[in-house]
Amino acid sequence: MTLSAAAEQISVVTEHLPPYSYLEEGEARGLSTEVVQAVLEETGHTSDIQFMPWARAYQTALTKPNTLVYSIARTPKREDLFAWIGTIAPFGAALYQRADAPPMELNSLSDARFLYVGVYRGDAKEATLIEHGFENLQTTDDDRLNLRKLMLGRLDMIAIDDSVIGPLLKEEGIDPKRLKKVMPIKELSGQLYMAFNKASDPELVKTFKEGLETIKENGLFDQILMRYLLVN
After folding, report:
1. Cβ distance 37 to 28 under 8 Å?
2. Is 232 contained in some domain?
3. Residues of the chain scoring pLDDT < 70
4. Given this model, what pLDDT does residue 1 score?
5. Which end of the chain has fewer CB atoms < 10 Å from its terminal CB, N or C?
């Protein structure tokens, strides 16, 4: 690590996405957050983590140099838009419906394209479903609103991360048995990343890549995963 890299001023942005990132009594918490904080410490950087709706966090990282964004899915359309640091958490996403809803014969994701599906505005799930020809997406800045609409029968399904649905059901006081997983979104099941704005200082990007690799080599990364009962 060089002194210039350590002195570089950076911004860190993310969204409310338990268990990956969330605020608890004003403190940044979560699996991804702990990984990012470990890398910040390893590289000698300090930065307040800014929580905001995903669309704004994404746009900030897209337009402001030396801005680090997490937890972000690495999709083909995003590949050349960011300087990718590395993987920070395993994840998956899927379509869910009410357990008491009539069963649907879906052989592929595109088979659901005419249904009313709730999705988080501006994230990779929305973009992927649009690519699959979904015509009736209902977007919102809060997954809780989509879940409530689903339970009220105003949506056929919701597209949501597998690790998010459990905590969300608990927050809303909904029995998990009232929901069922219908189909995984294969393109979005894999890993979440941390990434810098494409125009960020190359030395800064290099330093963070090395910092992430270090915490993976020394076992700290795996310790964080195990605390959240996730296996990489």
Report:
1. yes
2. no
3. 1-8, 229-232
4. 45
5. C
Both 137 and 86 in one domain: the answer is no
* 184 shares a domain with 123: yes
Looking at residue 2, its pLDDT comes to 44
We report the CATH number of the domain holding residue 144 as 3.40.190.10
Q: Are residues 106 and 34 in the same domain?
A: no
35 CB-near residues (< 8 Å, 6+ apart) = 70, 88, 89, 194, 212, 215, 221, 224
Looking at residue 188, what is its pLDDT?
86
> Residue 22 sits in which domain range?
3-90+191-227
**pLDDT in the model for residue 195:** 98
Residues in the chain: 232
Separation of first and last alpha carbons in the chain: 27
- For residue 194, give the nearest of 29, 36, 7 by alpha carbon: 36
What is the residue type of 118?
A: G
pLDDT at 227: 80
- Identify the pLDDT of residue 99: 94
pLDDT value for 225: 86
Q: How many domains, in total, are found in the chain? A: 2
CA quadruple 130, 82, 57, 36: dihedral, nearest 10:
120
